[in-house]
Structure formats: structure tokens, C-alpha cells
Write a structure and sequence with these properties.
The protein has 457 residues and is an alpha+beta fold. Helix content is 35%, strand content 26%. The strands form five sheets. It has an eight-stranded antiparallel beta sheet with strand order 13-12-9-10-11-14-19-17. The structure holds adenosine-5'-diphosphate.
Length: 457
């Protein structure tokens, strides 16, 4: 191991991703620090770190993980040399990255100015376009007023989608199908964006009727070395949020992915990107359309880790410590197939969150099975945070084998005391159309619709 890798890393996050970050740190011989809200006092991630500190005593449960001055102060007092932001919370907050830089603490992610540019969906699209990445038809500037919105919508053709430039997590988007609905929709999206993201900037894109969601994982170091780790298919979504992800994507010619991947890598070099990142695309009729970049580790990174053998979180840490990528594009070999089911504490069909005490927790195992979770029997899932309580990932030599292993794992998985969406996953994994591969982003909602109208539950 290089001398440059950090001594002490703080995970400015909670739950499964904090546990994941600590695992990577231990692999690299790094001392770990957790921070936790008072609501997370009895959490597993807290006990998995070498040191753990309460933050946000007088803050809301979410606010505790968002208080930049307090986190920076904690890091300085405890001699932390780098902060891993995980996903969500402050992970795509350029002010946080800057505050770390100013405090002399390494932010495990891109430089704050690059994060600022790529974290804003509209400026990311402009940059992607300049770098030769194929971008979805849409406006390149924020919408000024209703008149402009109408002109643009007519030029792209209805339906269109309105998006908040600062949006994320499937929120801040609205599909508009008619001229009559446009003006109200623009005003509503703008207002929602102002309230939810503190930024009322809204733009418009052509709405694709039947695409798949395909994304490219990249890693880029400080020395202009960048690679892509293949693609993921995250089309199984509900309300624009991912439910199942897999890699590689079924039925897309390798050459098309290679071409797209090289464009993404080239874009990373041009913008001075550093760390792990994901270029997200919609794929329809054989064409890719860039929609946004995520400048952080993603929930679904384990499927890529399975098919490439690369530890993405460890690479993020090494890159942030100033190490060179130890492999080149030609060293990356895609092997087998991996699939991930997001396990949420919610009703499997109404999706109403279901926090509460987990009374029994039995995990599946066997070849090719991985579980990333922060849950244990006796743990109380708090109502304040994301309802994801774990990720179940299955790997196989082929897609069929990965699916078969996932089916068994889902039958072995037992969680009592709270409702989870495992039943929904079992239903999807037994779906013949999904098993064939290549379903679109609307498939899950259509399936749910036919499921509820058939009266089965
Ligand atoms: P977020 O940052 O909130 O995740 P994205 O821009 O990544 O938002 O979009 C999330 C999902 O919304 C996509 O995976 C896709 O299912 C849907 N979506 C986004 N843009 C479009 C579009 N132009 N046409 C059709 N669906 C879209």
C-alpha cells in the first residue's frame, strides 16, 4: 500500500453506505470515524467504526447529516484527513466539497468546482454536449417564462418533461402532454424546485416514451487516467426511482457501449473529473441520450464490482489520496452478470414506508450472493430517513444464473416485524417478460397496474 493513503477517514453518512465505506477503509488499513444523529444512536454503522461521534444534537434527524460547519469541525478536532460523503446527504454539495478543501481535509470526490458544474443537471448537459457525449434533445438554458416554454415544447414536440436543474432522487420532474397543461406545470415545477432544492431553475427535455435507463460507471484519477467499468441497466423503476439494477445491460451491442464509454472517459479528462462518477443515459431505438451525471458512488455500484472485480469505494479513496489508477481500460474484463434488488422498509404494493422494529432478520447466502445492509434483529428502522434497509446482490456466470440465484436468495430472505418489498421482488423475478430482458423504464409500473387490477396481492 502506498504511503499516501489516508490515516483516518470520516464517513459523513449513515446506514449501509457508511458500513460499506468502513469495509473499504479497513481493506486499505485506514482508521475509521463515524458520525451519527441521536436518532441513529443504536445503529450498526456506528459500532462498525473505530471512533463514533454524535452530531446535530439540536438538529432535525436529517439536519444532523447536513450541518457542514459541525462536520468540518468534528473532522478537524478528531484529526480526520479525508471525508467520504457516500450518496445522498452532502455527497453532491459543492459547498461541502469546498469547505473540506478550505479546511485542508480531502473530500473523497471530484474537486468542488467540477462537482458544482456536473451536479447541476443543465450545466452537465451543456458540458456533455461539448465533449461529444450524445445528449437528449432539450433546452440548453433555463426556461425564462411561459411563452418560451411553449415555443420550446412545440419545437421538441409533446410530450415534454420539465426538470429542476438541482433535482435528484426522482423528484423535481413533471411530464407535460398538452399545450393546455404547460403553463401551470412550469409554475408548479418551479415552485416545487424552489422549496425542495432551494433553486427554482427549471428546464425542458423531450420526453421519451419507451426508453431504458443505461448508465456508465467511470473512475478517473488526478493524472488524466480515466476508465469506464461497463454499464448498468437501471430500467426497473417506480416513480423514477430505481428498484432493481443489473450489469451488463441485456441485448445492447458491446461496440455501442465501448463507443459510449470512451466518450464518457474523454469527457472526464476534459473536465478534470476525479473519482468515481456515473453518466446516466436513456436508450431508445438504438440511441443513447445523456440525462445527467452523478458525481459520487451510487447505490447500485455492487453490480459493477461483481462483473469487473474492482472495489469502487476503495478506488475512490485511493484516487482521492492522489494515487494513480493501477489499471488501464484494456485490463478491465466484464465477466458474468449481476443483479441487485433494493430492499425497502415499505408495503410491497402500496409503497407506504414501514419503519419499526425488526424482530427477526435472516439473510440468504451461497455462491454469488452479497448483502450490503446495516440492519440486525432488534434494530428499529427510524422513520426519518430513506426506507432502503439493504441491498441484495446476486452474481452468476450468465444472466439466467444470476436471476436463478436471486430467486433462491429472495425465498431465503426473512425479515419480521416490519413490511418489506421482498414480495414485490419475488413477483418481478418470476416475471417472464423481465426474465427475457430489455424491459423499459415503465415496465414496473405497468406490471403493478395489471397486478392490482387482477386483484392479487
Ligand atoms: P434524478 O436525478 O432525480 O434521478 P434523472 O434525470 O436521472 O433524475 O431521471 C430519473 C428517471 O426519470 C430516469 O431514469 C427516467 O426513468 C426518467 N426520465 C428522466 N428524463 C426523462 C426523459 N427525458 N424522458 C423519459 N423519461 C425520463
Amino acid at each position: 500500500m502506498s504511503e499516501k493513503v489516508f490515516n483516518k477517514v470520516l464517513a459523513a453518512n449513515r446506514g449501509e453506505i457508511a458500513v460499506r465505506i468502513f469495509r473499504a477503509c479497513y481493506d486499505l488499513g485506514i482508521h475509521t470515524v463515524a458520525m451519527y444523529s441521536k436518532e441513529d444512536e443504536l445503529s450498526l454503522f456506528r459500532t462498525r467504526a473505530d471512533e463514533a461521534y454524535l452530531v446535530g444534537e439540536n438538529k432535525s434527524p436529517l439536519g444532523a447529516y447536513l450541518d457542514i460547519p459541525e462536520i468540518i469541525d468534528l473532522a478537524k478536532r478528531r484529526g480526520v484527513d479525508a471525508i467520504h460523503p457516500g450518496y445522498g446527504f452532502l455527497s453532491e454539495n459543492a459547498d461541502f466539497a469546498r469547505a473540506c478543501e478550505e479546511a485542508g481535509i480531502t473530500f473523497i470526490g471530484p474537486p468542488s468546482d467540477v462537482l458544482g458544474k456536473m451536479g447541476d443537471k443543465l450545466s452537465a448537459k451543456q458540458i456533455a454536449m461539448e465533449c461529444g457525449v450524445p445528449v437528449i434533445p432539450g433546452c440548453s438554458e433555463p426556461l425564462r417564462d411561459g411563452q418560451e416554454a411553449l415555443e420550446k415544447a412545440i419545437s421538441f414536440g409533446f410530450p415534454v418533461i420539465l426538470k429542476a436543474a438541482a433535482g435528484g432522487g426522482g423528484r423535481g420532474m413533471r411530464v407535460v402532454r398538452t399545450e393546455a397543461a404547460l403553463l401551470t406545470s412550469v409554475n408548479m415545477t418551479r415552485e416545487e424546485a424552489r422549496v425542495a432544492f432551494g433553486n427554482p431553475t427549471v428546464y425542458m427535455e423531450k420526453f421519451l416514451e419507451n426508453p431504458r435507463h443505461i448508465e456508465i460507471q467511470v473512475l478517473s484519477d488526478n493524472f488524466q487516467n480515466a476508465v469506464y467499468l461497463g454499464e448498468r441497466d437501471c430500467s426497473m423503476q417506480r416513480r423514477n426511482q430505481k428498484v432493481i439494477e443489473e450489469a451488463p445491460a441485456f441485448g445492447i451491442p458491446r461496440r455501442a457501449i465501448e463507443k459510449l464509454g470512451s466518450r464518457c472517459v474523454e469527457a472526464c479528462r476534459r473536465i478534470g473529473y476525479r473519482g468515481a462518477g456515473t453518466f446516466e443515459f436513456l436508450y431508445e431505438n438504438g440511441e443513447f441520450y445523456f440525462i445527467e451525471m452523478n458525481t459520487r458512488v451510487q447505490v447500485e455500484h455492487p453490480v459493477t464490482e461483481f462483473i469487473t472485480g474492482v472495489d469502487i469505494v476503495a478506488e475512490q479513496i485511493r484516487i482521492a489520496a492522489g494515487e494513480r489508477l493501477s489499471f488501464k481500460q484494456r485490463d478491465i474484463e466484464i465477466r458474468g452478470h449481476a443483479i441487485e434488488c433494493r430492499i425497502n422498509a415499505e408495503d410491497p404494493f402500496t409503497f407506504v414506508p414501514c419503519p419499526g422494529k425488526v424482530t427477526a432478520w435472516h439473510l440468504p447466502g451461497g455462491p454469488g450472493i452479497r448483502i450490503d445492509s446495516h440492519v440486525f434483529a432488534g434494530y428499529t428502522v427510524p422513520p426519518y430517513y430513506d426506507s432502503m434497509i439493504g441491498k441484495l446482490i446476486a452474481y452468476g456466470d450468465t444472466r439466467e444464473q444470476a436471476l436463478a440465484r436471486m430467486r433462491v436468495a429472495l425465498t431465503e430472505f426473512a425479515c419480521e416485524g416490519i413490511k418489506t418489498n421482498v414480495k414485490l421482488h419475488r413477483l418481478l423475478l418470476s416475471d417472464e417478460r423481465f426474465a427475457r430482458g430489455g424491459t423499459s423504464i415503465h415496465y414496473l409500473e405497468e406490471k403493478l397496474h395489471s397486478h392490482s387490477s387482477s386483484g392479487v396481492n
